[in-house]
Design brief:
The chain is built from seven helices and 20 strands. By secondary structure, the chain is α+β, with helices and mostly antiparallel strands. It has three domains: about 70 residues, 2-Layer Sandwich (Uridine Diphospho-n-acetylenolpyruvylglucosamine Reductase, domain 2); about 150 residues, Uridine Diphospho-n-acetylenolpyruvylglucosamine Reductase, domain 3; about 100 residues, UDP-N-acetylenolpyruvoylglucosamine reductase, C-terminal domain (Uridine Diphospho-n-acetylenolpyruvylglucosamine Reductase, domain 1, Alpha-Beta Complex). Strands 6-7-12-10-11 form a five-stranded antiparallel β-sheet, covered by helices on one side. The chain has a four-stranded mixed β-sheet with strand order 1-2-5-3. A hairpin with a 5-residue loop joins strand 10 and strand 11. Helix 3 packs across helix 4. The chain is globular, with a radius of gyration of 21 Å. It binds flavin-adenine dinucleotide (FAD). Flavin-adenine dinucleotide binds next to strand 3, strand 8, strand 12 and strand 13.
Length: about 350
């Protein structure tokens, strides 16, 4: 366990932003995590838990301790004829975990194939894609309380999952390191092909022959055709959440933009497509220096090479202002800004 000083974070964040961490430590086992917490190195310092770094925008050097979680391991901890409870450690790559489950015929996560990042971050923002959120398969997680070193379990209910949201973004922010997550996966999965593009991709396969692997392959193809690969062009996926509005706001927006796509949300509210709004205001392909709006997906902000985190944040703020002025809606970043 070695604590580095003034370490560049460029290779640790998918935007490829070159900032430095005052201190940096990579922890590869739960024992390392416990030993590190007991050392009291964090006591008087600010810190940041970093996993795959694919949902973070650094706007300046981090004047504290970056704790990189790199714990590996996937195991089936309980199973019967119908389902298996699978435990994955926090530093496991999410897509490798999904593939591990698919290889064993365990279904449920196939619509979440190819989402970048690691397992420990999946419950933090309740990742979701193509009609599925991880909360639908999530059973529980194990975390360590940073202050006391106490191990705590969180049930699905206790995590208070919402749209790209959980308790770990609010009440318990920076209080726990998530160590592992348990997912209950089906051995007789029902496929979720409600998303139009998935249906199209599977149309040549008879319904009875369609498998979780087919769904996963379709999702990967769709993602590869729409989203920029962070290895080639820095980005953190969707930069903004889709805004939720009430009926009154919706009617006002619809009177100006009758063709805006609308999806029902909870409690008589409606979800609007932020990407559609940004596109409508002609931001797609716009560049502010090396910070840009991706040419084929307006919700994704990219680093064309040498953008700083503050360039990207400035661009995000310009877009937020423009959406507010035209649609009367406040966009909220999905990405964690530091
Ligand atoms: C091209 C691209 C496409 C994407 N598509 C999607 C998508 O379809 N759906 C979606 O939901 N997201 C998507 N994302 C966002 C991203 O993949 C997810 O948010 C992912 O879960 C982030 O994982 P990470 O390991 O990189 O987390 P990080 O960026 O390292 O961390 C994210 C947050 O979680 C906290 N955290 C991480 N690990 C722990 C831990 N062990 N304990 C406590 N806190 C922790 C961090 O402090 C930080 O606040 C996309 C990103 C990219 C680049």
């Amino acid at each position: 366990m070695k604590i580095g000083e003034n370490i560049s974070l460029k290779k640790y964040n998918s935007f490829g932003i070159d900032v430095k961490a005052r201190y940096f430590i990579e922890l590869t086992s739960n024992n390392d995590i416990f030993t590190f917490l007991k050392s009291h190195f964090l006591d008087d310092k600010q810190f940041l838990i970093l996993n795959g770094g694919s949902n973070i925008l650094f706007t300046k050097d981090f004047n504290g301790v970056v704790i990189k979680i790199s714990t590996q391991g996937i195991t089936i901890i309980e199973e019967n004829d119908n389902w298996a409870l699978v435990k994955a450690n926090a530093g496991e790559n999410w897509n490798n975990f999904v593939l591990w489950c698919l290889d064993r015929g365990l279904g449920g996560l196939e619509n979440l194939s190819l989402i970048p990042g690691n397992v420990g971050a999946a419950p933090v923002q309740n990742i979701g894609a193509y009609g599925v959120e991880q909360k639908e398969l999530f059973q529980s997680l194990e975390a360590v309380e940073i202050k006391s070193g106490r191990i705590v379990n969180f049930s699905n209910e206790e995590c208070r999952f919402g749209y790209r949201d959980s308790i770990f973004k609010h009440d318990t922010k920076n209080q726990y390191i998530i160590l592992s997550v348990n997912y209950k996966l089906s051995k007789k999965p029902a496929l979720n092909t409600s998303y139009g593009d998935i249906q199209k991709k599977l149309s040549s396969i008879p319904l009875a022959d369609q498998t979780i692997k087919h769904v996963s392959d379709a999702v990967c193809e769709i993602r590869n055709s729409k989203l920029p690969d962070p290895a080639k062009i820095g980005n953190a996926g969707s930069f903004f959440k889709n805004p939720i509005v009430n009926l009154e706001q919706l009617m006002l927006i619809k009177s100006k933009y009758p063709d805006i796509p609308v999806y029902p949300a909870d409690n008589d509210t409606f979800k609007l497509a932020a990407g559609w709004m940004i596109d409508k205001l002609k931001w797609k392909g716009f560049r502010y220096g090396d910070a840009g709006v991706y040419h084929s997906q307006a919700l994704v902000l990219v680093n064309h090479g040498q953008a700083s985190g503050s360039d990207i944040l400035k661009l995000a703020k310009m877009i937020m202002k423009s959406v507010k002025e035209n649609f009367g809606v406040d966009l909220e970043p999905e990405v964690n800004i530091h």
